[in-house]
Design goal:
The complex is a heterodimer of chains A (328) and B (378). Chain A has 3 domains: 139 residues, D-Maltodextrin-Binding Protein, domain 2, CATH 3.40.190; 104 residues, Periplasmic binding protein-like II (D-Maltodextrin-Binding Protein, domain 2), CATH 3.40.190.10; 65 residues, Alpha-Beta Plaits, CATH 3.30.70. Chain A is 37% helix and 28% strand. Chain A has 11 helices and 15 strands. Chain A has a 7-stranded mixed β-sheet, sandwiched between helices. In chain A, 42% of the residues are buried. Chain B has 378 residues and is α+β, with helices and mostly antiparallel strands. Chain B folds into 3 domains: 177 residues, 2-Layer Sandwich (BirA Bifunctional Protein, domain 2); 97 residues, no CATH class; 53 residues, no CATH class. Chain B is built from 15 helices and 12 strands. In chain B, helix 12 packs antiparallel against helix 13. The longest helix of chain B has 18 residues. The radius of gyration of chain B is 24 Å and the shape is globular. The chains are: A alpha/beta (328), B alpha+beta (378). At the A-B interface, helix 4, helix 5 and strand 9 of A face helix 6, helix 9 and helix 10 of B.
Chain lengths: 328, 378
């Protein structure tokens, strides 16, 4: 048997739940044949895949080294932990969970600091006054350095922080921080505020591929199959199915509806009996139903879609394109 | 022996430091393993990615020394000679990630502390640096010099808000930032903190005491606790500065022209000094002490036999390190990008390393590999 494709999945917490739900929706049930404590698993009914359960940080390292082919991790970790990340990995698609912004935050009392230009000036003034540099607590040292460099800020020192970074200014171990925030509530609770133009990265969980992994033909074929299901599910999620008998649907009406509601007609125009199937973004189905009836449709049914397969496979096309370019 | 350095190189390097020792500089060999803190604090975060960092069991950050200026300075401060005039020379390895070059390389150099005769000390450093190229048979190295003190004096004399002065000084070493600053300065003032425009306008022209009281009140009314290392007084001071800054921030056209004229002055040091005097006279600004020091130094260089006409001076030459405060120089060979010898004056560094009073300091480092690569046969 040839070597399996290694898919690295978060091993604990909300990230694991979200990841399993994500694969589950795509019809890929992750199973642990040797019990829940096992750190290796498979996908029910799909051969050639080995699931590695790891922490998000470990997944990032394994992807950078090519020890896993595919993995789920946050873009924040990818950008922080992998130098020149785009040369080592491919971000295949955002997954719609694990949202977090990496932001620069300072004490609320700094009413004279609104933006990075203010921060730049305050940092220099601080160094001149105190004969030392302002300290910045973070676990995102690399992201911080690059961001500050592009804003010309130089008078600061990074203090590596493993946890509870927001508490550093109150504890007196740093003057400011760079950390992830979702709502800003934790910042406010610690007497901090985000800088206006200080969003370093808008991050979410991503399906990530490793360029350096050994991509055999079998492994590429397995990836194609997985990504085909994921793409089919993502497309299904973006649309609801609208069915009606409406012989009067013509090019002109279709053009108007496409522009107003973003619909597609996957199977072409009305059949000889006038049956018509449309795909419509879920938010627009009611407006579309009104539009169709106003123009003569009688009955309309709307139902959710599980999968929409098309001839193309955009997610795999992206991966294959990148891997082929690397091989040149 | 596993890896003896190339003996030809090694002998010449040993001869070079021996000559520095004979010139009165005590040979010193600081530990290779150094606390990381001073390097990060003094050289900036950008150096972190080029350093080899590690930690001891207590979690203190250590590094392989990326240069010898800070280690020699620390040893001097820890010695009985601290605060008194003293000079040291060294020959040793330093460790820095470099693009397309070995990360472990050998430097020889000198650090001179506590000399009040700055112009003479500056000139001696350049002369000793040139000696290194002579020892290696480098044919007519190009000598680039600058003087950070001239730019500081010039900016101090300009009619500008303190925040702008700080910014120009800080960005002197980052040419693209400096150009951006000049563009910003000439933009109309409309992108300030709009929410506070009313408060700022009310503060404009009020005295610092009233402003401090107002800011303190504002913070307590809003129920904001003060955290972090900046005091309310500091915040109030800068708030007040902003009110001045946000008024007519538009830099008068002629001030920008003046800055650009200053930064374009280059050539041999005597001609440049003449142009600087003319600029000072035209703009009615005082550059005298800094410019006097510059001219006295040129005199000492000539007295040491340096061909002053061949020196390439530029007002915008700064070596890219924030700790230089005055004279800076680099010697270049025809065959490589990196300087053969580089150094300058860093009068503020020892204070920041914990000295009680400011101690004048000047020094340079010669790269043994670069010298060997550009020199003649030994």
């Amino acid at each position: 048997m040839s070597a399996p494709l290694i898919l690295a999945v978060p091993s604990k917490g909300r990230l694991q739940e979200n990841a399993e739900n994500f694969f589950g929706r795509a019809g890929l049930a992750l199973v642990k044949p040797r019990g829940v404590r096992d750190y290796r698993g498979t996908i029910a009914g799909v051969d050639g895949v080995e699931i590695a359960y790891l922490s998000a940080a470990e997944i990032t390292v394994q992807l950078a080294q090519g020890a896993a082919h595919l993995g789920i991790t946050g873009e924040d970790l990818v950008r922080e932990m992998i130098p020149q990340a785009d040369r080592r990995i491919v971000l295949i698609t955002g997954l719609g969970f694990g949202f977090a912004n990496v932001v620069v935050a300072v004490p609320q009392a700094w009413i004279d600091v609104r933006n990075m230009a203010d921060l730049d000036d305050v940092a220099t003034a601080f160094r001149l006054k105190h004969e030392r540099k302002m300290r910045l607590a973070t676990k995102y040292a690399n992201l911080t350095r690059d961001f500050f460099a592009t804003h010309g800020v130089v008078d600061y020192r990074i203090v590596e922080s493993a946890g509870a970074t927001e508490g550093a200014p109150a504890a007196g171990t740093a003057e400011m921080i760079v950390d992830i925030t979702t709502t800003g509530a934790t910042l406010a609770a610690n007497g901090l505020k985000a800088i206006e133009d200080g969003v370093i990265l808008r991050s979410q969980a991503n399906l990530v591929a490793a360029r350096a992994a050994a991509w055999s033909n079998e492994q590429r074929e397995t990836a194609r199959l997985l990504l085909d299901r994921i793409a089919a599910q993502k497309r299904a999620e973006a649309f609801a199915e609208v069915r009606t008998r409406f012989a009067g649907m013509n090019e002109k009406l279709f053009g108007i509806a496409r522009q107003k509601f973003g619909i597609a007609a996957p199977f072409g125009g009305p059949t000889s009996s006038g049956m018509l199937t449309l795909h419509c973004p879920p938010d627009n189905v009611h407006a579309l139903a009104n539009f169709l009836r106003d123009n003569g449709a009688e009955a309309i049914s709307v139902s959710p879609l599980n999968y929409v397969y098309t001839r193309d496979n955009p997610l795999y096309a992206k991966l294959a394109g990148e891997l082929d370019a690397d091989a040149l | 022996m596993a890896s003896e350095p190339d003996t030809g190189t090694d002998q010449r390097a040993q001869a070079l430091v021996a000559s520095y020792a004979r010139a009165g500089y005590a040979r010193i060999d600081p530990p290779v393993l150094q606390p990381a803190e001073p390097f990060l604090d003094l050289s900036g975060e950008d150096i972190r990615r080029r350093m080899f960092l590690t930690a001891d069991p207590q979690g203190r950050e250590l590094c392989l020394r990326p240069d010898l200026t800070i280690p020699v300075s620390r040893d001097y401060l820890a010695s009985p000679a601290a605060g008194k005039p003293a000079g040291y020379c060294y020959l040793g390895v330093v460790f820095r990630h470099r693009h397309g070059a070995a990360a472990e390389f050998v430097q020889a150099g000198i650090e001179s502390f506590g000399r009040a005769d700055k112009a003479a000390a500056d000139a001696e450093m350049l002369a000793l640096g040139i000696e290194a190229t002579t020892q290696y048979g480098v044919d007519a190295p190009q000598i680039r010099i600058g003087d950070v003190g001239l730019f500081s004096a010039f900016v101090a004399a300009l009619d500008l808000a303190p925040a702008w002065k700080r910014r120009l000084i800080k960005d002197f070493n980052r040419k693209s930032s400096l150009k951006h600053d000049l563009d910003q300065l000439t933009l109309a003032a409309s992108n300030g903190s709009k929410d506070y425009q009313g408060v700022l306008a009310a503060l404009n022209g009020s005295d610092p005491k009233a402003a401090h009281a107002l800011v303190t009140d504002l913070l307590s009314i809003a129920g904001i606790a003060t955290v972090g290392g900046r005091s309310v007084a500091e915040i109030a001071d800068r708030f007040l500065e902003q009110s001045a800054l946000n008024a007519p921030t538009r830099l008068p056209r002629d001030t920008r022209t003046l800055i650009e004229r200053f930064l374009s002055i280059a050539g041999d040091p005597d001609d440049a000094a003449g142009e600087l005097r003319a600029l000072a006279a035209d703009a009615k600004i005082a550059l005298a002490p800094a410019l006097d020091l510059f001219e006295t130094r040129t005199g000492f260089l000539a007295a040491r036999g340096v061909n002053v006409r061949a020196l390439k001076f530029a007002t915008d030459f700064g070596r890219g390190f924030d700790y230089y405060t005055g004279f800076v120089f680099e010697l270049h060979g025809a065959r490589t990008e990196r300087p053969l010898v580089a150094g300058g004056r860093y009068d503020g560094l020892l204070l920041r390393l914990g000295a009680r009073d400011a101690i004048p300091a000047v020094g340079f480092a010669a790269s043994i590999d670069e010298l060997a690569g550009n020199g003649g046969v030994s």
